[in-house]
Design brief:
Length: about 350
């Protein structure tokens, strides 16, 4: 009797273990199954997302059975397009036996696949209708078309699932998937009040990070980020200290490697002066007697403005012929400058 009871308990344990094993280690959803929520590692994008574009004759609708209560109905030869970043794609449709297209074309990066929305007699929403895995982790172009030969057959477009770390893009966008190239032509020039860095713009970069060290080869400290031009003036440099600089290009995909390293030493402010002569586009000529520091400031403004940065006008503070005025300022508009020349001279003290 004890043996019979032991055998029965053992059999029950085997059954229970098998059941729990099937629950814990169940396979992922398969095409044709209803999938009311995205599985782990996925996220769901609604059919109404603004980055998903439809052809003109599609019909938008709503039902509580659909994901986010919305759907888009695609008739014969109607299509939907989008781009997405990631490695996998699922298309979520409504299944039904009547008038559901069994000839849906999916183009992923120009490769064509086919699937069906025809069901078994029941109306079922949020069905996993198509799946593509193991794509390269990059931006993919997708087009879904109802290719059924009968104009009475359609597709209920409900949602798409992609990587939980991915995102959807407008099909007309042209995003870059590469990090920028490294800068190879960084140069540095010491002025009286700053050290000016310049480099050629890098294709695909949206900004730059300037790094500095007092030791050859680093370690470097960031002294400026979100620099949008290809010129930067280090105004925090200390006179007599040699600095070593590198610049990094940045875009939405990451950062480039370090540029070539350059060095510069800020020199003491010179007692020299200069006559700055500016010829304007209307033929007028303006002349200013400037200190070396004032001249450096003007030239830095011109360089940065030529690169698309900085204010439109530059202010000269007149310290001569002030007369009865509290202050006299003269402004020069960048776009009105034709040429300028500099004549430097030393101040002779008696």
């Amino acid at each position: 009797m004890k043996k019979k009871i032991s055998f029965t308990i053992l059999a029950l344990l085997v059954v229970i273990t098998t059941l729990f094993s099937s629950v814990s280690f169940a396979d992922s959803a398969i095409v044709g199954q209803q999938l009311l929520q995205p599985e782990s590692g996925w996220k769901r994008i609604d059919d109404s997302d603004p980055s998903i574009k439809y052809s003109s004759n599609r019909v938008s609708g709503g039902t509580t059975a659909a994901f986010n209560n919305t759907y888009n109905l695609l008739f014969q030869n109607e299509s939907v397009e989008f781009k997405f970043k990631g490695t996998k794609l699922r298309i979520i449709n409504m299944y039904y036996y009547a008038n559901q297209s069994d000839n849906v074309k999916v183009l992923i990066d120009g490769v064509e696949y086919t699937y069906s929305c025809a069901g078994d007699g029941r109306e079922v929403w949020q069905v996993l209708a198509f799946e593509k895995l193991n794509l390269t982790d990059t931006i993919h172009t997708v087009k879904i078309t109802n290719a059924h030969e009968n104009s009475n057959y359609h597709i209920y477009m409900d949602a798409i699932d992609i990587d939980d770390s991915g995102y959807v893009l407008d099909p007309d966008s042209n995003p870059t998937t590469e990090i920028p190239d490294s800068i190879s032509n960084l140069s540095a020039q010491s002025h009286n009040s700053n050290i000016k860095l310049s480099w050629n713009a890098v294709t695909g970069a949206i900004s730059y990070i300037v790094k500095r060290s007092t030791t050859v080869g680093g370690p470097y400290t960031d002294i400026a980020s979100n620099v949008t031009g290809n010129i930067y003036s280090d105004t925090t440099a200390v006179v007599g200290t040699t600095y070593y600089y590198v610049v990094v290009a940045v875009n939405s995909n990451g950062q480039s490697g370090l540029s070539n390293e350059v060095s510069a030493t800020l020199q003491p402010i010179s007692n020299g002066k200069a006559i700055l002569t500016i010829t304007m586009t209307n033929g007028s000529i303006k002349e200013y007697d400037l200190s070396q520091q004032q001249l450096d400031s003007f030239i830095t403004w011109v360089d940065e403005k030529d690169n698309g940065n900085g204010p439109e006008k530059y202010k000269f503070v007149k310290t001569w012929n002030k007369g009865p005025f509290k202050a006299r300022n003269e402004y020069v508009i960048f776009d009105k400058i034709l040429t300028f020349s500099v004549d430097e001279y030393d101040v002779v003290t008696q």
